[in-house]
Amino acid sequence: MNKVYKVIATVQSVKGHCGFGHRVGDQVVFDGQTVQGRVCLSALYSFLPKVFAMRYGAEFPWLEDKDVATHACPDASNPVVFEIRRVEESKTEDAENDQPR
Fold it and tell me: What's the confidence (pLDDT) of residue 92?
C-alpha cells in the first residue's frame, strides 16, 4: 500500500486585509477523516486539489522540497499565502485512525 500523509496548511503571510481574519501561523490540518482549524472557503477551494494530491504522494517537479508547497488564496488584492506541508503519519496514528468510533 502507498504511503498516506497528513497535510498541514499554515498561513505564511498576509498582505493587505484578509476579510476572513487569517493571521500568520494559523493552521488547518487534513488527516483524511477530519479538517481541523478555521479556513476561508475561497482559500480552501483553491488549495484543496493540492492538499489532496500531496496527501496521496503526488510530487510536483518545480518544488525544491517535495513535501512543501506554497499556495496563495485567490484574493489578488489581499493575498494570504499558505505553506502546504505533508507529514508522514506514524504507525500509532495510523492504527488509531483505523479504529471504528
Answer: 45
pLDDT in tens, 77-97: 999 999 999 998 765 444 455
Q: Which of 2, 20, 7, 31 is nearest to 83 (CA)?
A: 7
Q: Cell 496563495 belongs to which residue?
A: 72
Sequence-separated (6 or more) residues with CB below 8 Å from residue 4: 32, 55, 56, 57, 89
Side chain identity at 90, as an amino acid letter? S
What is the band of 98 on the pLDDT scale with cuts at 50, 70, 90?
low
pLDDT at 63: 95
Q: 29 to each of 16, 55, 61, 63, 76, how far by Cα in Å?
A: 25, 11, 24, 21, 24
